């Protein structure tokens, strides 16, 4: 409890010579209950009500915004995963939306407060570490690549400036591995190394720069799979991939068989790699490592999907998120078919035609 306890200072009312000193009086979370019991109860309130809990008192607000609260919920498997989508509208302006998949009436809601200087940038990185969402780098029509990083705290609902990248970048790969953010390749300033990558350590709040000749600037997609970072380069028709081996910190060329079917957004479910092939309609493919081949899981209804789409997965549910935040949910653990089309559920559309650039998960 020490990491999440807050205290109030009250003066000693005494005639002694120490009357000018203060002593600490613990302000209970719930009157009449020890704090550990109170925390046990409060931490089990669903995440959708946390904004209301912050209004109870200053002590409760400090608790729900603390790292200790986040750690407690995660330790006891109480954290709930929400989906954050990074989008661009028809006016080339960026926006961010959030979806609580646990609600019976699911709907996308807009996240306010994106830093104004980032609203028109292209080629930005979008990544999640813990309970924080990061917007990294990017460039504009008259603006060179930048090293700026902005952070959104999902529990506090606030944006702030974070430690800048070691290298200014745009159109780069961005992934999380071993609780560190990797910003890889892409385009930068004339003086930057196109074969470099940066790693961010939240414990030191700092970036480190690295270089490897196998890292290329022409990046199409990336995924973390089997504890390694894979980056697909070139076009969707003719492409190759490189893989990062964290044990020795080097990049190597990836297996050609695996790369041959990686022709769209990818997601990993229970250690299995899935790809959404959007070359002719939308078809979910699965990589079978033991047989070294791709197999078709099934086609998605053209009435529900609006390519280009992005993928995220929560447990065995894959969320296919397309233009205008059209969202289809597939249970790959119990995938049914009707007339050759995979059975799915969907989320009501919002009144927009925004393109979805990237989707990430935040558990809090």
Per-chain topology:
Blueprint: E1 7-11, E2 22-26, H1 35-42, H2 50-53, H3 58-64, H4 67-75, E3 81-88, E4 94-99, E5 108-111, E6 125-129, E7 132-136, E8 149-153, E9 158-162, E10 173-177, E11 180-184, E12 196-201, E13 206-211, E14 219-225, E15 228-234, E16 239-245, E17 250-253, H5 256-260, E18 266-269, E19 272-277, E20 283-288, E21 293-299, E22 310-314, E23 317-321, E24 327-331, E25 337-338, E26 341-342, E27 345-347, E28 355-363
Antiparallel strand pairs: 1-2, 3-4, 3-28, 4-5, 6-7, 7-8, 8-9, 10-11, 11-12, 12-13, 14-15, 15-16, 16-17, 18-19, 19-20, 20-21, 22-23, 23-24, 24-27, 25-26
Strand coverage percent:
35-45%
| Strand arrangement in the largest pleated sheet | 5-4-3-28
Using the coordinates shown, work out and report the CATH topology of the domain at 113-222 and 238-254: Neuraminidase
Distance between the termini: 18 Å
């Amino acid at each position: 409890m020490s990491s999440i306890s807050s205290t109030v200072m009250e003066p000693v009312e005494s005639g002694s010579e120490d009357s000018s000193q203060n002593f600490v009086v613990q302000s209970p979370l719930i009157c009449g209950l020890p704090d550990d019991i109170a925390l046990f109860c409060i931490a089990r309130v669903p995440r959708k009500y946390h904004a209301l809990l912050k209004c109870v008192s200053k002590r409760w607000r400090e608790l729900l915004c603390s790292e200790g609260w986040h750690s407690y919920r995660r330790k006891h498997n109480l954290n709930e995963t929400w989906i954050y989508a990074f989008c661009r509208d028809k006016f080339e302006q960026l926006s961010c939306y959030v979806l609580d998949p646990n609600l019976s009436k699911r709907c996308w809601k807009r996240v306010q407060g994106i830093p104004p200087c980032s609203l028109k940038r292209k080629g930005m990185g979008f990544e999640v570490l813990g309970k924080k969402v990061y917007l990294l780098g990017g460039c504009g029509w008259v603006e060179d690549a930048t090293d700026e990083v902005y952070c959104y705290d999902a529990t506090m609902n606030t944006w702030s400036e974070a430690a800048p990248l070691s290298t200014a970048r745009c159109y780069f790969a961005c992934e999380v591995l071993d609780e560190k953010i990797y910003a890889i390749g892409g385009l930068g300033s004339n003086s930057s190394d196109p074969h470099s990558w940066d790693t961010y350590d939240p414990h030191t709040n700092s970036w480190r720069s690295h270089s490897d000749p196998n890292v290329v600037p022409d990046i199409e997609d990336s995924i973390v799979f089997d504890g390694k970072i894979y980056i697909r380069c070139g076009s969707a028709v003719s492409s190759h991939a490189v893989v990062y081996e964290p044990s020795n910190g080097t990049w190597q060329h990836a297996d050609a068989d695996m790369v041959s079917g990686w022709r769209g957004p990818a997601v990993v479910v229970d250690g299995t790699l899935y790809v959404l092939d959007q070359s002719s309609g939308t078809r979910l493919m699965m990589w079978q490592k033991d047989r070294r081949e791709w197999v078709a899981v099934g086609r998605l209804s053209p009435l529900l999907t609006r390519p280009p789409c992005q993928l995220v997965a929560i447990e065995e549910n894959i969320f296919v998120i397309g233009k205008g935040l059209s969202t289809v949910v597939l249970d790959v653990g119990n995938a049914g078919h009707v007339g050759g089309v995979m059975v799915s559920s969907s989320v009501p559309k919002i009144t927009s035609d925004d393109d979805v650039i990237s989707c990430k998960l935040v558990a809090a």
